[in-house]
Amino acid sequence: MRHAKERARFPDRRCHPAEVANPGVAMSEPPTRVVADPAPLGLAAFGATTLMVSLFNAGVRPELVAAVFPTAFLFGGVVQLVAGIFELKQGGTFGGTAFSAFGAFWMAYAVYGHFVEPTLPPDQAHLATGLFALPWTIISFYLTVATLRTTGVLLALFASATTTLTVLTIAEFLDSDPARRIGGAIGLVTSALALYASFAGVINTTWGRHMIPTFPDPGKRLARLGHRKNRPVSITSSTGEREISHAEAHPER
Questions:
Q1: DSSP assignment string, 140-194
Q2: How far, in Å, CA of 83 to CA of 102, rounded?
Q3: What are phi and psi of 103, to 5 degrees?
Q4: CB atoms closer than 10 angstroms to residue 247
Q5: 45-64 exposure pattern, b = at least 16 Cβ within 10 A, e = fewer
Q6: At what angle do helices 125-146 and 93-111 cross, to 10 degrees?
Q7: DSSP assignment, residue 62?
Q8: CB proximity list for 247: less than 8 A, separation 6 or greater
Q9: Nearest CA to 186 among 158, 213, 212?
Q10: Contact 22, 59 (CB under 8 A)
């Protein structure tokens, strides 16, 4: 009855309809909406698009490479970017960075291949393609270092992706078809690893068990290198923001 008297004293307080009908019963909060793991989707988009491009690079009807552009833009690009945004929403720095970066890569690849490359001088187009691929090779390399604290599957995937991009970048600078085919062959391995990781994520989640091995934390032994270092903060946070965060975390000080 105390709750009913309080409502009589404060009639402007908004109540749940069930509370009005049962003034003595406290209503529970609505369940929090859970966001599903976006990683399997992002890995599927990366793996499928890499598979298509690598087949052409490996020498399977390379004159038909334009057929990959719609898949690269929509599945490898847009879908992977969405996966990256949801990773960031969940607080996943690595997943958000990797999926967002490679989502942008595949969208840029489709635009470059369809609109830009045909307008370049034929004898210099390969140099432009090499310059296009070079930054993504660098990004893939440092993402590979980060995977040491994720899973062995991701470590193998990004090591293979970095090797693929390195070989293809060199192939474009040298305008070497044999090197392109080698890069395409390595790319097929990369796509297989990405699809395996996606498969493991889907099966392990839906079964609720670690059915498919992913070999977590392959760089665990390296953790001791930073055991005396401070916990990380955002690379873009200012000193003032860090001081505020520290004060909120230790109010007694």
A1: HHHHHHHGGGSBHHHHHHHHHHHHHHHHHHHHHHHT-HHHHHHHHHHHHHHHHHH
A2: 11
A3: -65, -45
A4: 10
A5: bbbbbbbbbbbbbbeeeeee
A6: 170
A7: G
A8: 253
A9: 158
A10: no
**Residue 228 φ then ψ, to 5°:** -100, 5
Kindly report, residue by residue over 107-164, the tens digit of the pLDDT.
Answer: 999 999 999 999 999 999 999 999 999 999 999 999 999 999 999 999 999 999 999 9
- Residues with Cβ < 8 Å from 149, sequence gap 6 or more? 217, 219, 220, 222, 223
Q: How is 87-133 classified by DSSP, letter by letter?
A: HHHTT-HHHHHHHHHHHHHHHHHHHIIIIIGGGS-TTTHHHHHHHHH
Tokens representing residue 118 in the block: 């045909």
Q: Which tokens is 144 given?
A: 């590979």
What would the two tokens of residue 207 be? 């079964």
The per-residue pLDDT for range 121-131, each reduced to its tens digit, is 999 999 999 99
In whole angstroms, what is the distance from residue 122 CA to residue 109 CA? 18
Instruction: For the chain, list residues with pLDDT below 70.
Output: 1-33, 226-253
Instruction: Judge whether 43 and 198 are in contact, CB under 8 Å.
Output: yes
* Total length of the chain: 253
Question: How would you class 83 by CB atoms within 10 Å of its CB: exposed for 0-12, middle for 13-18, buried for 19 or more?
Answer: buried
Q: How many CA atoms lie within 13 A of 33 on its CB side?
A: 2
47, amino acid identity: G
What span, in angstroms and rounded, lies between the C-alpha atoms of 161 and 148? 15
